Amino acid sequence: QKSAVEAQTSMLERWLDEQCRLHPNWHKGKTYVDAHTGRSFSTRKEYNRMMRDVKAGGVTYIVFWETSRFGRNLSAVLKECIKLNDDYGVDLYFIDKEIDTRTPDGLGKLAIEAQKADEASLQTKARVDRGIAEKTAVLEAMGDGYLHTTRALGLIAHDGEKQKLFRVEEEVETLNMMANYYLECKSLTKTAKYLI
Description:
Elements: H1 4-22, H2 45-56, E1 61-64, H3 74-88, E2 91-94, E3 99-100, H4 106-141, E4 151-152, E5 155-157, E6 165-167, H5 169-185, H6 188-195
Parallel strand pairs: 1-2
Antiparallel strand pairs: 2-3, 4-5, 5-6
Helix pairs in contact: 3-4, 4-5, 5-6
């Protein structure tokens, strides 16, 4: 069984093949696939590889299967889209919503979809934060009012003592990444395999 990303890539390749048949002047270029998108462009290996190719020239149009595959941070998505167009003359097309940045309303439609993805990402972060707060409350409620653990994912007791737990930001970031990956692929099994 294919992962969601593999399935999207396969459908995108078929769509591109069909478009190249319909538009003989189109040339299908490279495919770039990031396993998860998140809120930052700087951490995306394949996106950055694509940008190196854009800067080298020859790329005029980039096609994404879904708007959320481009990015999940409204401000960053709009800045990146404008940079691609203004600095490199590159337009974007999003198959899922039929958004074309060459059209007068393309950027506005993209802004709406990016806002939705941004909100979904922030909701995921809020759910993770609530889960950590609930875990802390349960641990604190056990027994004599002291914590009976010095460690829980995303949390650690200060200096290993039985006292208040503190957030471990790197682990919270990992929890957010896990939650976002699960939301993209909709499978605990696939998420577990991705983490292994």
